[in-house]
Amino acid sequence: MYVEMEPDKMGNHSNYRGVAVFQIGFDEKGRVTGADAASGQPLGISHLMAAVSRWTFKPLVVNGMKKRGCGKLWIRFAMRENVPSTEVLKGPAKE
């Protein structure tokens, strides 16, 4: 699983952290097909959503066939002096 967060490109000295919960859908190649934020700090969610297209997941394998999947994803995030960091706490491919 690969999840990242966009840096603050406005030049603000942003400093915040928290946990965001997303409802995620992904295809048989692990690419995100849909993402909705269920909860979290608004600035963090904004920067996470900007990076959603680059997130990838391990596809589900059923009887040897790769399948689509979906689930909730908990992400711990931090932005310190415009440098983002993320850690997946729990998600569809990490339970």
The largest sheet is: 4 strands, antiparallel
Elements, N to C (H/E):
EEHEEEE
Low-confidence stretches: none
- Find the structural class using helix and strand composition: mainly beta
Secondary structure tally, helices: 1
User: Compute the gyration radius: what is it?
Assistant: 14 Å
Please report which band the strand proportion falls in: under 5%, 5-15%, 15-25%, 25-35%, 35-45% or over 45%. over 45%
Cross-sheet strand order for the largest sheet: 2-1-5-6
Described by the principal axes of the CA atoms, the overall outline is elongated
Which bin fits the share of residues in helices?
Answer: under 10%
Task: Give the total of beta strands.
Answer: 6
Measure the end-to-end span.
Answer: 12 Å
| Average residue pLDDT | 84
